[in-house]
């Protein structure tokens, strides 16, 4: 007797839940409802006779059997995609620009999520400032950009709102009789401009002590004890401290992260849906 094969949609739902840690985010990535994802997972568990996911009001966690099955589920989906792509012809391409202040240490995982959605899709990623990326997008050099809210722009889809703070190294001490030393990204940088406006409006003397060509270099300057930087917590190494309240620095408003895209359908759009869902999970913790 031939056993009933696994439902690939149900396997995909399980992998999405496992990777995103949320039924809500998995539903968004699969462009369906949370109830539909739950039903697919329940049917898969019934088919296998195993409990794959432990559900609690606060989080989703794989069972021991679920951890074991996850590797096999990924292999099954990869084999399915390779079979479909064997005669698909030329690979489609998606070019994405991601702002320095958005592309954190989670970027490899986000790219992996897109690749898992469509392994045959060619993905090109460019990292730069929000202003430069928006100019490239307007010149149609990029299909999609993910950026901070930029002055003069009212378009784009809000992916998430993220908190920023004034961060310094644990050993760093500010001398009250000296201007506040600040590490920033090079212009044009919307976060740099906003930080400068906030400090000036609060009549806090400050001076730039370091200008970096990317967020990793600014984070390195902070941890080296050169001064403070306005950044999202997820961008900094473990141990960096938010010294804003201690130093009486102005509160930084939550900043939207926006998706600008001309991709409205097809495989590229499906990959962007998966990326958006994964990014929201990262920002919301």
Description:
With 285 residues, the chain is α/β, with parallel strands linked by helices. The chain contains 10 helices and 12 strands. A 5-stranded mixed sheet has the order 4-3-5-12-6, sandwiched between helices. A 3-stranded antiparallel sheet has the order 10-7-11. β3, α5 (107-117) and β4 form a beta-alpha-beta unit. α1 (8-20) packs across α2 (23-29), α1 crosses α3 (34-48) and α2 (23-29) packs across α3. The termini are far apart.
Strand content: 15-25%
Got a strand count? 12
Q: Over all CA atoms, what is the radius of gyration? A: 22 Å
Helix count equals: 10
Descriptive tags:
elongated, alpha/beta, 5-stranded mixed β-sheet, 285 residues
Give a brief rundown of this model.
Helix 2 packs across helix 3, helix 2 packs antiparallel against helix 10 and helix 5 runs antiparallel to helix 10. It contains ten helices and twelve strands.
In terms of topology, how is this protein built?
Elements: H1 8-20, H2 23-29, H3 34-48, E1 53-55, E2 60-62, H4 64-85, E3 93-99, H5 107-117, E4 122-128, H6 130-138, E5 144-148, E6 157-162, E7 165-168, E8 180-185, H7 190-201, E9 206-212, H8 215-223, E10 229-231, E11 241-242, H9 244-247, E12 255-261, H10 266-284
Parallel strand pairs: 3-4, 3-5, 8-9
Antiparallel strand pairs: 1-2, 5-12, 6-12, 7-10, 7-11
């Amino acid at each position: 007797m031939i056993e009933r094969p696994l439902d690939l949609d149900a396997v995909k739902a399980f992998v999405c839940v496992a990777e995103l840690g949320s039924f809500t985010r998995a539903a968004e990535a699969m462009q369906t409802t949370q109830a539909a994802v739950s039903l697919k997972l329940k049917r898969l568990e019934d088919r296998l006779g195993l409990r794959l996911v432990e559900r609690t009001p606060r989080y989703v966690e794989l069972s021991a059997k679920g951890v074991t099955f996850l590797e096999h589920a990924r292999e099954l989906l990869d084999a399915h995609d390779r079979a479909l792509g064997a005669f698909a012809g030329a690979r489609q391409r998606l070019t994405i620009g991601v702002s320095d202040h958005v592309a954190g240490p989670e970027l490899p995982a986000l790219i992996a999520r897109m690749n898992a959605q469509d392994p045959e899709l060619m993905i090109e990623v460019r990292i730069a400032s929000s202003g430069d990326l928006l100019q490239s997008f307007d010149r149609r050099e990029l299909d999609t950009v993910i950026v901070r809210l930029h002055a003069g722009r009212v378009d784009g889809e809000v992916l998430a709102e993220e908190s920023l703070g004034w961060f310094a190294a644990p050993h760093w001490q500010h001398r009250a009789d000296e201007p506040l030393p600040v590490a920033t990204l090079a212009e044009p940088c919307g976060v740099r401009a906003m930080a400068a406006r906030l400090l000036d409006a609060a009549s806090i003397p400050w001076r730039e002590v370091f200008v970096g060509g990317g967020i990793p270099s600014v984070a390195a300057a902070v941890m080296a004890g050169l001064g403070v930087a306005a950044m999202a917590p997820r961008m900094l190494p473990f141990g960096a401290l938010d010294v804003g309240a201690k130093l009486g620095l102005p509160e930084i408003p939550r900043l939207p992260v926006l998706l600008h895209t001309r991709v409205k359908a097809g495989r590229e759009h499906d990959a962007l849906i998966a990326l958006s869902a994964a990014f929201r999970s990262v920002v919301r913790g």
